[in-house]
Amino acid sequence: MKYNLMRISDLKLGQKINIKGVIAKYKGIQKVRISNFGKAEKRVFQVAGSNTFIYYTIVDGSKMLKSEKIKLI
Question: In the chain, how many domains are there?
Answer without folding.
Answer: 1
